[in-house]
Design a protein that fits this description.
Length: about 210
């Protein structure tokens, strides 16, 4: 399932998940499902990305992707989310899993703090989608997202984006300034009215 537009209901959703986690130890739903996490981790492993590379998860939600990366051996992991409830939830999940080397911060990616810089890998699963759906100046917010990405990602750094709102062509257009595409990652196909399409697009960009 894909994330819904960002508004105060995000916080409400994470507050519910926080309560559920406190009650039963369940981290809640993983948007985009397990396979998108597996796809990201496989790509990093296939590229032999060093385990000490600095990784930023943009819109980390419950932090489960970073937990999986930590289990795969990655040691320099940061997750940001503009929902304080999401970060609280992620911290509780991190404690339960005993993964003390993951940093979580409340941050608005469209106005990142100065210390958010120098990352070698940035990962986005659905946050760009959510920003794009914002009814308030979506075009400006998408441009600001690309600017923020350029400021936090090192030159030559990799940006892995998973989207269910944008096609490959549209994403190439959104990130044409300052980024080049390295590859498209395989995603599940669906058939609708006799036409085959992808419900999810996953691309890897490299910062120029």
């Amino acid at each position: 399932s894909c994330p819904s537009p960002p508004d105060s209901s995000w916080d409400a959703a994470y507050e519910r998940e926080l309560q559920t986690f406190e009650d039963i130890g369940d981290a809640g739903e993983i948007w985009f499902g397990e396979e998108s996490m597996v796809r990201i981790i496989r790509w990093l492993e296939k590229q032999k990305i060093p385990l000490d590379s600095s990784v930023l998860d943009i819109g980390t939600g419950n932090g489960v992707l970073l937990i999986e990366l930590a289990k795969s051996g990655y040691i320099d992991l940061t997750g940001i989310d503009y929902s304080p409830s999401a970060i609280q939830l992620a911290e509780k999940v991190r404690e339960k899993e005993g993964m003390s080397n993951i940093k979580f911060k409340v941050e608005d990616f469209l106005a990142p703090s100065a210390e958010l810089s120098g990352f070698e890998i940035c990962i986005d699963k659905g946050t760009f989608d959510a920003i794009s759906l914002n009814p308030d100046n979506a075009v400006g917010k998408r441009k600001q997202y690309a600017r923020s990405l350029s400021s936090v990602l090192k030159p030559e750094g990799f940006f892995l984006i998973t989207s269910c709102n944008w096609t490959k062509e549209e994403l190439l257009n959104e990130f044409r300034e300052g980024f080049e595409i390295l590859e498209e990652l395989p995603t599940p196909k669906f058939c609708f009215g006799g036409r085959i399409g992808n419900s999810v697009t996953a691309l890897v960009f490299q910062r120029k």
